[in-house]
Amino acid sequence: MARALRKHRMLVVNPIISAKFNEFDRAFFNRNASPLFQIDVKSLKYGPASIESAYDETLASPFVVQEVVQAEKNDFEAVIINCFMDPGIEASKEISRIHVVGAGESSINLALLAGDKFSIIDVGPSRYVSYSPTRLVVKHGVQSRFVSVRGVGIRVLDLDKDLERTFKAACREGEKAAREDGADVIVLGCTGLAGLAHRIQDELKLPVIDPAIAALRAAETLILARLIPDKVAYPRPPRKSLKLPF
């Protein structure tokens, strides 16, 4: 009788306090994962209800790091931070000996392979389309390939209340990005839009990147390529006294 292959275990961290998305995300990631991978999903015990600002990122980051540390202890091989803003990613990479992958960084890098010029379709009204997507572009040094960021006018926690409205808004802004800004690749700027990329792509006739899938494929590739986590760019912090609430 053939022995079952051992699956690589990855943890998806939803960096918000609500667990309402966990079951959907667990099913979504496992459905899309390669056969050699098994995905679990956790949300935070403490932090914000959603991430739409630098303030939200800062509140979530220490608790994301906490989950990464625990994931390593529990023998996960990689952690996906399931938010386009990648909260706590640098600290997590420093403190961890396993791969930590962000949805934002993965999407942006995949966009460079999919086409020449990309636009990010963010969430929220225009005043909530903050510096964060552009900051990620600058961080990764790809400003010459980035043409715009546009908002769909729907807050994160409202995205799933009317998926047809969310789909139409993303298509509308994606079409503008292509026609007015010259984008030939569309990056969805929120993991709350997971599962809509193929429908939007069929509508726009352009490559549309799902940030959750981009992060999943990046994590799988790092593991299957047997690459070790980068401890040159992200050296382990020096030991010192700490006083933490957890």
Radius of gyration: 18 Å
Secondary-structure-derived class: alpha/beta
Query: Residue share in helices?
Result: 40-55%
Q: State the CATH topology of the largest domain.
A: Rossmann fold
Give the H and E element order: EHEHEHEHEHEHEHEH
- Main sheet characteristics: 4 strands, parallel
State the helix count. Answer: 8
CATH class of the largest domain: Alpha Beta
Oligomer type: single chain
User: What's the pLDDT, averaged over the residues?
Assistant: 92
Let me know the number of strands. Answer: 8
Q: Determine the N-to-C terminus distance.
A: 46 Å
Offer a concise description of the structure:
Helix content is 40%, strand content 16%. By secondary structure, it is α/β, with parallel strands linked by helices.
Describe this structure as you would to a colleague.
There is one protein chain. The chain has 246 residues and is α/β, with parallel strands linked by helices. The chain has two domains: 8-102 and 214-224, Rossmann fold (3-Layer(aba) Sandwich); 104-211, Rossmann fold, CATH 3.40.50. Helix content is 40%, strand content 16%. It contains eight helices and eight strands, in the order βαβαβαβαβαβαβαβα. The strands form two sheets. A four-stranded parallel sheet has the order 2-1-3-4, sandwiched between helices. The protein is globular and about 50 Å long.
